[in-house]
DNA sequence: AACTCGGGGCA
DNA sequence: TGCCCAGAGTT
């Protein structure tokens, strides 16, 4: 029974890997701090929106010191098109100040310190760990949450509990890719409202049936 | 657990 | 026009 479920999960993993062989993050910044800023900006908006503001943003403001000193209204204006811009601008500035004060201006490379930064929750922290430091990290966003429930990989709805469920059943070397697979899959097939079940390559392994939730 | 912040893209 | 987007903080 448990054995059978394990085989099912590995089959899901194999098909995702075959379907999306070279996934990679769209928030690809060399600089760890700029990646952190881009990731905070990415909350509840598309990577396209983020990528439309970051070039001009980082051409004006590059370092934590720059972000700490800029007038907040100016920062708000520069990130406005990513939505929730007042929150994000405030978080980013406080984040820069905290990095200067507590971490010598460097982005910490562990989940505890990252999640203690203003505006950085578990998802943002895991994105930074995976993309900036190459550490195995399971990012649980709305796609991963929705699809993990549909596939029967978790029964929880809390993102942190889902993360713990997933890291138990997915091999560590797949963690970074797994979240990206589900995000790609969630955009193309397993969409929130109208999942394309007839054309789904995982349909025979799916637990959601007609519920779609 | 529910509520708030939000402009942009797309059917 | 309606709905979704690699969320986080507050109450």
Q: Which labels suit this protein?
A:
single chain; 213 residues; mainly alpha; Endonuclease Iii, domain 2; Endonuclease III, domain 1; 2 domains; 0% strand; elongated; DNA-binding
Report the CATH topology name of the largest domain. Endonuclease III, domain 1
> What's the number of domains?
2
CATH superfamily of the largest domain: Hypothetical protein, domain 2
Low-confidence stretches: none
How many helices? The count is: 11
Structural class: mainly alpha
Strand count: 0
CATH class of the largest domain: Mainly Alpha
> What general outline do the C-alpha atoms trace?
elongated
SSE ordering: HHHHHHHHHHH
Helix share bin: 55-70%
Global Rg? 18 Å
Largest sheet: none
CATH architectural category of the largest domain: Orthogonal Bundle
End-to-end CA span: 24 Å
Structure description:
This protein has eleven helices and no strands. With 213 residues, the protein is mostly helical. The protein folds into two domains: 2-23 and 139-205, Endonuclease Iii, domain 2; 32-133, Endonuclease III, domain 1 (Orthogonal Bundle). Helix 5 (72-79) crosses helix 6 (85-103). The longest helix is centred in the middle third of the chain and has 19 residues, at 85-103. It binds a DNA duplex (11 and 11 nucleotides) through helix 3, helix 6, helix 8, helix 9 and helix 11.
Question: Can you summarize this structure?
Answer:
By secondary structure, this protein is mainly α.
Summarize the topology.
Elements: H1 2-19, H2 32-41, H3 47-60, H4 64-69, H5 72-79, H6 85-103, H7 111-116, H8 122-133, H9 142-150, H10 159-169, H11 175-188
Helix pairs in contact: 2-3, 2-8, 5-6, 9-11
The protein binds a DNA duplex (11 and 11 nucleotides) through helix 3, helix 6, helix 8, helix 9 and helix 11.
